[in-house]
Amino acid sequence: MIEIRTISTPSEIGQFIDFRTQLYRNDPCAVPYLFKDERDTLSPDRNPAFDFCQAEYYMAFRNGRPVGRVAAIINRRANEKWGKKNVRFGYFDFIDDEEVSAALIEKVREYGRQHGMDTVIGPMGFTDLDREGMLVEGFDVMATMHANHNYAYYKRHIEALGFTKDNDWVQQLVRIPEEVPEKFAKITSLVAKRYHIVPRKLSKRDVLENGYGRRLFHVLNECYKDLYEFSELTDAQIDKLIKEYLAIVDLNLVTFIFDESINTDDPTEQMIGFGVSFPSFSKALRRTGNGKMLPFGWLHLLRTQLFHDTDTVDLLLIGVLPEYRTKGANALAFDDLIRWYNKYKFKYALTLAMMETNDGVLSAWQHFDARTVKRLRSYKCPIN
Fold first, then answer.
1. What is the pLDDT of residues 315-350, one digit of tens each?
2. CA angle at residue 15 from 281 to 115, to 5 degrees?
3. For helices 329-343 and 182-195, what crossing angle results, to 10°?
4. Which phi-psi region, left, alpha or beta, contains residue 308 (left: φ > 0; alpha: ψ -120 to 50)?
5. How far is Cα 169 from Cα 124, in angstroms, rounded to an integer?
6. Reduced to 3 states, what is the DSSP secondary structure of residue 331?
7. Which residues pair with 321 in a beta bridge?
């Protein structure tokens, strides 16, 4: 018999997080997610998304042993923007037992009914900067801390429960060329000359104190506003992202795109695009064993951050304002980043999860040795 418990105390949240780590301890392609990041995301007092989200967490037990988990999340801003009544399921992990997965999803349905929702979608997080989508292709490719990784049986379970495809994302693995391809280089040169659009590197002071970090996320809001289930980042969320991520990023791996023809008293307004990447922490996280910083997990992560102890870089965020997409502005970000990837001796770049319909970004990789290595899918099902 399956027992479903509502999870709320700090120790229960810890068990909720650790369940996934234990479930995937023998999967050679899985990585534990950072425990602190998971805990902060799930905590209303640490996650600014709770200003417009509500959630409840559940774990399934059999004979006192944990066998599954799920989060039910309602993003009110997204629902208002898209005119929907969706309850999201996320943090969905379970043993290969259909009774377990069915019981967990039923709790999400119940939560949705109680709050007037009519559809379940997922896997989704609180916002688009959380992991989203269920892995349906690419189980034999090393996971990253930024994207969901799951066993192949998840797809069978969720579809048996009546869920159908709502959206797909793909990730591409790009072999980093020793030199920027000639055709690509010509495109970037033409863009720069014709439109006065240039890539730049900025200092930590520029990013943290002079407004460029905030401008990056304002541009992101505009770039991503029409993407699947997107809800704009609030000032509180932006402040947290600047403090926790831009403060530690290697700015050589971040490119800012500027339109120098814009006349303005605020120089940050010339920023029209960006590309943000981090060295892959996958191997470092596997060395921690559990995603925890103590006692020695921080050493593995610090080594990767400082010495780039990996052959892969994760291209996490990229975007240009809509009016610049047809001008080839995003090519400038790729061009600049590729040069730095070579300096750091990275061999591969794994792209962020991109919507399969995002031809503008996907087409940029046609000039490179690139292939789709992962596909993630969100599902939907009416609440009966």
1. 988 889 998 888 878 888 888 998 899 999 999 999
2. 100
3. 130
4. left
5. 12
6. helix
7. none
Which residues, listed in sequence order, are joined to residue 56 by a DSSP beta bridge?
Answer: 72
Packing angle, helices 153-160 and 98-114, rounded to 10: 50
Residue 160 CB-half CA count within 13 A? 13
pLDDT in tens, 27-84: 999 999 999 999 999 999 999 999 999 999 999 999 999 999 999 999 999 999 999 9
Cα dist from 21 to 26, 30, 223, 327, 352, whole Å:
10, 9, 34, 44, 23
Sign of the Cα pseudo-torsion (252, 254, 260, 264, in order): negative
CA distance 40 to 267: 34
217 close to 238: Cβ distance less than 8 angstroms: yes
CA separation (Å) from 260 to 192, 197, 201, 265, 324? 10, 6, 14, 12, 13
> At 287, phi and psi to the nearest 5?
-70, -30
Sign of the dihedral through C-alpha 301, 307, 312, 317: positive
Nearest to 186 by CA among 377, 380, 13, 367: 367
